[in-house]
Request: fold
Amino acid sequence: MPRLRHVGTVRTVTTKDAGKISLLMRVMPEDIKTDLTELQGRVAKALPSDCKLEGTETKPFAFGLKALVCKITVPDVEGNADMIEETLRGVEGVQGVEFLKMSRIIG
Reply:
């Protein structure tokens, strides 16, 4: 668990106390024939319960291959972005995952 220093004390941050961040991840399918709608469903099912797939967009990548760009909301806890990337790499039909952007959700 991450630790925050505040006026000389150490406080443990739990996912309940953590804010939220939005991750933008490019998910590359294994094959040009991969159904991206099915892949989107498998990605959503693979995410931990405290994470949410907010939306996806299909974008051309190279030589007819299309990538799924996923917007995922996760608790702002150290290591979550890496954990999500590894989780997505393990989804059936995924050839690779690229981290694109991270932003803090305020409010």
